[in-house]
Amino acid sequence: MEQKPRFSVIIPVYNRPDEVADLMKSLAEQTCDDFEVVIVEDGSTVRCEESVRRYPSVRSKYFYKENEGRSIARNYGMERAVGDWFIFFDSDCVIPPGYFATLSRELASAPCDAFGGPDAAHESFSPTQKAINYAMTSFLTTGGIRGGKVSMEKFTPRTFNMGFSRRVYEKVGGFREMFSEDIDMSTRIRNAGFTISLIRPAFVYHKRRIDFAKFFRQVHVFGMSRITLKLLYPGSMKLVHTLPALAVIAGVAMLLLGILVSPWWLLPLGLYLLAILITALVSTRSLEIALKAVPASVIQITGYGTGFLRAYFTKILLGRGRDIEEEILIRKGK
C-alpha cells in the first residue's frame, strides 16, 4: 500500500497547458517526493490533462470542473487532497529541485502552522518577465511586502508559494472567491491564532505577466482589492499600502509643477528612477533588464496606486462599499 504523502500540492488551472507542463516537469525533478499534486481544471477550454499525464512519476490527481473561480477551485482540491499540509502554487510557477527537501527541513527546525516563500526570476525567463519580477519584489517599489529581506509590513503569504496545515484548514475553512484572496486567507489564519512564517530558502520561480499591459491590469486590481480588505478587516490598512497612491498623487503634482513652474520639480522623480535603474542593474547584472525595470516599476506603482484611489473614491468616499457581485463571490468562498 502506497504511503500517504505529507504534502498535497493544489493548483487551479485555466487554459494553461504549456505552463502546467513546465510546472509538472519541475515537480518530477524534486529530490524529495513526499507529495501529491492535485490539479483542478477550472472550466478550461484548452485542457492540461495531457501535460499532467506526461509525468507519471509524479503522484497526481486531475479534476475538471465548471468555471467558478480560482479560490473555489483551490477549495475543491483541498476537499480531495490527503496530505497533512496543503501547498499552493500558481500554474505559471517553476519549482526548484530542492523545494520540498528544504521545506521539510525548515518545518522540522522551526515548526509553524502556515508559511509563505518568496519568488524569483529563472534564468530562462524573458528580460520583460525579469524586469516585472524586480518591480514586484524590490523594496523601492513594494516595500518588501512580498518576502523581501527588509519589509515595511508583517509578512503575508501569497498563493504563488503558500502552505498551511490541515488543522488550519479544518478551523479556518477555505479561500473566499475574491481578489487578494490569499491576503484574506492569511489574515483569517493569523486572527485564528495560528503562526505564520516566512521560509526564505523555499522559493519558487514565478513567470508573472509577459507584457506591460497585462501587468498594469493585474496590479490595478491589486490596488482595488486593498480597499476591499480594509472593509473586511477594519484597521488592517498600513502605511505601506497607501504609499503607491501617495506616490501617484505626488508624481502628478511634480510633473505639473515641473511643466508649469520649474523643471527643478522633476528632480525627485529623476533621482527615484535613477535609484531603480542602479539597484536593478546591481540586482540583475543586466543593463537590458535594468532599463526595462524602470517602466515596469512605474507601471507597478501607478497601476496599484490608481486602483487604490479608484476604489477608495467609489467604495469609501461615495459610500458604495463592495459591489453586490463581489459580496456574492465572497460568500461563495465561505
How would you characterize the overall build of this protein?
With 334 residues, this protein is α/β, with parallel strands linked by helices. The chain has 13 helices and ten strands. Strands 3-2-1-4-8-6-9 form a seven-stranded mixed sheet. Strands 5-10-7 form a three-stranded mixed sheet. The radius of gyration is 20 Å and the shape is globular.
SSE string, helix = H, strand = E?
A: EHEHEHEEHEEHHEHHEEHHHHH
Structural class: alpha/beta
Rough outline = globular
**Strands in their spatial order, largest beta sheet:** 3-2-1-4-8-6-9
Oligomeric composition of the shown chains? single chain
> What percentage of amino acids are in beta strands?
5-15%
Salient structural properties:
alpha/beta; disordered C terminus; 10 strands; seven-stranded mixed sheet
Record the SSE blueprint.
Layout: E1 7-13, H1 17-28, E2 35-42, H2 49-53, E3 60-65, H3 70-79, E4 85-89, E5 93-94, H4 99-109, E6 114-116, E7 119-120, H5 127-137, H6 139-142, E8 161-165, H7 166-172, H8 181-191, E9 196-198, E10 204-206, H9 212-232, H10 239-260, H11 267-284, H12 287-317, H13 324-332
Parallel strand pairs: 1-2, 1-4, 2-3, 6-9, 7-10
Antiparallel strand pairs: 4-8, 5-10, 6-8
Nutshell version of this structure?
The protein is α/β, with parallel strands linked by helices and 334 residues long. The chain has helices at residues 17-28, 49-53, 70-79, 99-109, 127-137, 139-142, 166-172, 181-191, 212-232, 239-260, 267-284, 287-317, 324-332, and strands at residues 7-13, 35-42, 60-65, 85-89, 93-94, 114-116, 119-120, 161-165, 196-198, 204-206.
